[in-house]
């Protein structure tokens, strides 16, 4: 049995963060535990978890980690967007097998911090975050999409 | 046809540079093959039996002469002078080097083409009716909707690591010429009773090892909610599609296991949520795209031809299709010469076809899911000249929808997944029927060959299907009957024990004999099979 | 015997382990015995080959290396339906043994 304190990444492990507030420096708990506890402020979502069960608790949460045990499992992208669509404004951290070429899409889905298992090359990552100057579809980042720009005149 | 604006161009250019950087990191060892594989696949680059293979998208099958010439140039510059047109309106090059792949993609981008999402567990090239914009029986041109979906699905941030690949087809006629209901999502554009245009959604179709016909999940989606509804379908699939077993990861398994009603309920719930979240592009975007698909300047002209040359008359009868303007037809350019490789075209043939498109079809070409090419808008008066040019280049085979018009996957000659070769069977069957002279007598007979259970050759949907399997290290072929990819969609059933190469060719001849002996007036092979059932065929094959 | 094959990382060409490096010609393949895993790991890490694997093979009466599985025999020469594109040594060995 893993102690709840063992879950979660520490601020030291966060390689990229796009927020100005102080990062939460305490561990996360599982989604099930979060639903049972009334005072938790940080939670970790696994790929099989339904992010929507957290919606009643969003006000008190300061950190939600979404775990990517393997880079090919894309459920966490939906989890992130669902949380942002529901108005969550706290830190949304992608953790686990997070790779360079996923950063820009994760950012669009609402992630604003990243704690990859293996540290990523800073130059390659900077390039990856900047890949898409414009975008085609709406996501959690509220960017004006290309179709909006075409018709804004 | 659609033309990129600065934004579309910037997107494909950015993608080329992203891939160039990814390839560099792979060659430098910063990416392992396991990490690089999904990235190269999302740019259409496979590692096949003999080399890397590049699959280039021809969105909804439409391209112009300049683009076809660019495809020819790529075949010469980076490959070995030919390409292979596929059942999903793509072209594949079999001998691309990883070292050159980014340069090939850059050349494509110069003519508004790309290989984006032609593989990988993401939304693939959107396919459509090859007669779109020309057919007499469509309620609208389906391509603007396909283009809207293309843009929405390109680099979609949420749907790039789906449980499995995802294929969408869009049609706009009662007749289904795109195997719509054998797609992950099939969309039929139609008019409701009030005369409004909207979209019917089918979900959970597919071939592969577990073939399924997509059930209808929504009768009418208003056009200003099309993207929102597609997004809801995809989100439910991304969240709940199986990821424990890649052979059960397609949406058809999810829809099957949940039941169409429950999947639909979940989609509707997500759809209601997304309507409030607001993901649809502005309404004007569809109108902007549609303006690119306005009719060319058709002119009146003769509606009949001189049929005194029987070879020409046969080609007209078999390879032309009724157009919405009565002085025009759509003309099929067969890539199925007797003894040839289905879907292959040399760079010279591509250039000739490009020229013919300029001369005779308003600079427009199509790729058909049957692995043929098409000139969509040909004046009836121009048919003799067109036919003469095609015939001289080996592109005039009068065999559309006959037993010589075989769909075949690349099979074990090229593909690392294949268990048996497909192409030699196609070659020998076309030679057999050309020699015995029965092609015409047999009429419409769709024969489809796959070299493995993944069914890229659509054998489940063949009136006659052939599936190559590995039987203790040797090639073996299972025969199936009764499939259809059209509006009368059905899945073929296996006749019984498999055959070796000679045996299956003989078996094909045997089942056509049964048909000729049993058919009633006007029946196609498929109709006779449906009426008399499997038994008489089995009896003849194994009795 | 056991031989090693893979594809060149940059060109994608089918290659065969000849004891010192990677050859385009199946006849150059050598028996690696118990060393397969070690060579595969080392060569993959050095990116001198991509997704290599060990296969069973034999040597025929004329001294030619013959992979046991049909797929690797097709890989050895090229597409059977495009013999004009075969690897250069195909003319010497003929095609009869492939299928």
Task: Throw out a few tags for this protein.
heterotrimer, A: 153 residues, alpha/beta, 6-stranded mixed sheet, 16% strand, globular, B: 543 residues, alpha+beta, Alpha-Beta Plaits, Sulfite Reductase Hemoprotein, domain 1, 5-stranded antiparallel sheet, 38% helix
Number of helices of chain B: 17
Largest interface: A-B, 39 and 41 residues
CATH architecture of the largest domain in chain B: 2-Layer Sandwich
**Strand runs of chain A, count:** 6
**Ends of chain B: how far apart?**
55 Å
What is the 3D form of chain B?
globular
SS-based class of chain A? alpha/beta
Characterize the overall form of chain A: globular
The count of β-strands of chain B is 20
Radius of gyration of chain A: 16 Å
> What is the CATH superfamily of the largest domain in chain B?
Sulfite Reductase Hemoprotein, domain 1
Question: Under CATH, the topology of the largest domain in chain B is which?
Answer: Sulfite Reductase Hemoprotein, domain 1
Derived from helix and strand composition plus strand pairing, the structural class of chain B reads: alpha+beta
For the biggest β-sheet of chain B, the strand order reads 1-2-5-4-13
State the low-pLDDT regions of chain B, or none: none
Overall pLDDT score of chain B: 97
The biggest beta sheet of chain B reads:
5 strands, antiparallel
How many angstroms does the end-to-end distance of chain A come to? 59 Å
């Amino acid at each position: 049995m893993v102690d709840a304190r063992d879950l979660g990444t520490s601020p030291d492990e966060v390689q990229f963060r796009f927020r100005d507030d102080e990062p939460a420096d305490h561990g996360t708990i599982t989604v099930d535990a979060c639903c049972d506890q009334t005072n938790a402020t940080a939670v970790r979502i696994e790929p099989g978890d339904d992010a929507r069960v957290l919606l009643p608790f969003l006000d008190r949460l300061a950190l939600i980690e979404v775990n990517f045990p393997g880079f090919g499992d894309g459920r966490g992208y939906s989890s992130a967007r669902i949380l942002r669509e529901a108005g969550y404004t706290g830190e949304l951290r992608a953790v686990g097998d997070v790779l360079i070429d996923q950063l820009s899409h994760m950012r669009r889905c609402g992630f604003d911090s990243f704690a990859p298992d293996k540290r990523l090359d800073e130059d390659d990552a900077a390039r990856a975050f900047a890949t898409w100057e414009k975008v085609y579809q709406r996501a959690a980042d509220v960017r004006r999409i290309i179709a909006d720009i075409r018709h804004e005149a | 046809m659609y033309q990129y604006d600065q934004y579309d161009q910037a997107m494909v250019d950015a993608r080329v540079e992203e891939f160039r950087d990814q390839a560099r990191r792979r060659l430098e060892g910063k990416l392992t093959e396991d990490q690089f594989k999904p990235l190269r696949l999302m740019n259409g680059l496979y590692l096949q039996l003999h080399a890397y293979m590049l699959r280039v998208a021809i969105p909804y099958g439409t391209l112009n002469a300049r683009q076809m010439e660019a495809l020819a140039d790529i075949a010469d510059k980076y490959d070995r002078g030919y390409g292979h047109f596929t059942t999903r309106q793509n072209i594949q090059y079999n001998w691309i080097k990883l070292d050159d792949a980014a340069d090939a993609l850059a050349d494509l981008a110069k003519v508004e083409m790309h290989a984006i999402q032609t593989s990988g567990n993401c939304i693939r090239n959107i396919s459509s009716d090859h007669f779109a914009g020309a057919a007499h029986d469509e309620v609208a041109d389906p391509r603007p909707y396909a283009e809207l979906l293309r843009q929405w699905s390109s680099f979609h941030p949420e749907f790039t690591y789906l449980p499995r690949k995802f294929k969408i087809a869009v049609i706009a006629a009662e007749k289904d010429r795109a195997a719509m209901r054998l797609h992950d999502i099939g969309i039929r554009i139609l008019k409701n009773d009030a005369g409004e245009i909207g979209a019917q959604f089918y979900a959970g179709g597919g071939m592969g090892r577990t073939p399924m016909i997509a059930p209808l999940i929504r009768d009418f989606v208003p056009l200003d909610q099309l993207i929102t509804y597609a997004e809801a379908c995809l989100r439910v699939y991304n969240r709940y599609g199986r990821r424990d077993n890649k052979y059960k990861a397609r949406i058809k398994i999810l829809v099957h296991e949940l039941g169409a009603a429950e999947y639909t309920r979940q989609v509707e719930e997500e759809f209601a949520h997304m309507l409030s979240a607001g993901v649809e592009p502005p309404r004007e975007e569809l109108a902007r795209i549609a303006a690119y698909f306005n009719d060319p300047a058709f002119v009146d002209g003769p509606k009949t031809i001189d049929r005194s040359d029987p070879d020409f008359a046969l080609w007209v009868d078999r390879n032309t299709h009724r157009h919405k303007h009565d002085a025009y037809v759509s003309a099929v350019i067969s890539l199925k010469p007797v003894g040839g490789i289905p879907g292959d075209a040399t760079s010279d043939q591509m250039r000739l076809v490009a020229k013919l498109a300029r001369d005779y079809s308003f600079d427009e070409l199509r790729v058909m899911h049957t692995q043929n090419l098409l000139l969509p808008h040909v004046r009836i008066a121009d048919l003799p000249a067109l036919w003469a040019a095609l015939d001289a280049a080996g592109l005039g085979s009068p065999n559309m929808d006959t037993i010589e018009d075989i769909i075949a996957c690349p099979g074990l000659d090229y593909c690392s997944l294949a268990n048996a070769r497909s192409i030699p069977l196609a070659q020998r069957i076309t030679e057999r029927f050309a020699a015995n002279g029965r092609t015409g007598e047999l009429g419409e007979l769709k024969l489809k060959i796959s070299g493995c259970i993944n069914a890229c050759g659509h054998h489940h949907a063949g009136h006659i299907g052939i599936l190559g399997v590995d039987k203790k290290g040797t090639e073996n072929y299972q025969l199936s009957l009764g499939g259809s990819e059209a509006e009368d969609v059905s899945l073929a059933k296996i006749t019984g024990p498999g055959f070796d190469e000679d045996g299956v060719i003989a078996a094909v001849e045997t089942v056509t004999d049964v048909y000729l002996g049993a058919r009633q007036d006007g029946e196609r092979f498929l109709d006779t099979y449906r009426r008399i059932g499997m038994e008489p065929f089995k009896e003849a094959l194994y009795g | 015997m056991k031989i090693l094959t893979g594809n060149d990382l940059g060109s994608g060409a089918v290659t065969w382990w000849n004891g010192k490096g990677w050859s385009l010609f199946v006849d150059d393949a050598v028996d690696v015995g118990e060393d397969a895993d070690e060579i595969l790991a080392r060569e993959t890490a050095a990116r001198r080959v991509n997704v290599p694997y060990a296969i069973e093979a034999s040597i025929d009466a004329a001294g030619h290396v013959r992979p046991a599985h049909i797929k690797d025999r097709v890989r050895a020469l090229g597409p059977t339906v495009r013999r004009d594109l075969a690897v250069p040594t195909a003319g010497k060995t003929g095609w009869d043994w492939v299928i």
